[in-house]
Design a protein that fits this description.
This protein has three helices and 16 strands. The protein is an alpha+beta fold. The strands form three sheets. It has a six-stranded antiparallel beta sheet with strand order 3-2-1-4-5-6, with no helix packed on it. A hairpin with a 2-residue loop joins β10 and β11. α2 runs parallel beside α3. The model has no long low-confidence stretch (mean pLDDT 96).
């Protein structure tokens, strides 16, 4: 995903009321921007560290920019704009980076499905087959090249896993894809101590035939792109 114009640099000051972030611009002036991330952002809220944001010229927006990349506690870069994840995965499928999801003729986003009134992030289709892809953005670092999900209790995430299990039971393919918007990550694991119910449901889903994939990203002010597969364990 090419970023045009490139992201602007700033210094992270604080995040508050979940959706607000104060930053300091290079000239020293303050700016309040939007944070499109409903998670806890553990290890991603570090005052006086480098961050990057996109700016909008939409006159209807209350805030002029969106927080995109932050510096984690250990100095990694993390993409915290969760609204980008689906686009990153779709782009990586189209470019052939995600090899496990090739061979489909059609791809549609945000399709209603399931018994719990859900929307699947990406629906891939070819003659006689559908593949339901649920995308989760990962930014919780655990050291040693490990990232984990979730960073907060996610009843919505557990609901999606139940829906994916039903898809498999109906004879279709279901994939949970962790989009790791972080540098320096080699492996992804479930954060069972953060949300034991999600961890138990994920284990059940894997046994039921839901596939789990994890892919990492390259993050720069000019481009955010999925560039590598990482291990899931």
């Amino acid at each position: 995903m090419k970023l045009d114009p490139p992201l602007e640099s700033a210094v992270f000051i604080k995040r508050y009321k979940r959706f607000f972030t104060d930053v300091e611009l290079p000239d020293g002036s303050p700016l309040t921007i939007h944070c499109a991330n409903t998670g806890s952002m553990s290890y991603c809220q570090n005052p006086d560290t480098a961050c990057w944001f996109s700016r909008s010229d939409n006159p209807k927006r209350k805030l002029p920019g969106t927080l995109e990349i932050v510096t984690t506690t250990s100095g990694l870069l993390a993409g915290v704009n969760t609204s980008r994840s689906n686009h990153l995965v779709a782009e990586a499928i189209q470019s052939g980076v995600i090899k496990e999801l090739q061979g489909y003729s059609d791809m549609t986003g945000e399709v209603r499905y399931g018994e719990e009134k859900s929307r699947i992030d990406l629906l891939l289709e070819k003659v006689g087959e559908k593949c339901f892809v649920e995308v989760k953005n990962v930014t919780l670092e655990a050291g040693g090249g490990l990232a984990r999900f979730p960073d907060a209790v996610t009843t919505r995430g557990a609901k999606h896993l139940r829906e994916l299990m039903r898809v498999v039971a109906e004879g279709q393919r279901a994939v949970l894809l962790y989009c790791v918007q972080m540098t320096g990550i080699e492996r992804v694991a479930v954060a069972a101590e953060v949300d034991p119910q999600y961890a138990a449901t994920l284990s059940e889903a894997i046994k039921a035939g839901v596939e789990v994939l994890a892919y990492g990203c390259k993050l720069t002010p000019e481009e955010i792109v999925i560039d590598r597969k990482v291990a899931f364990s």
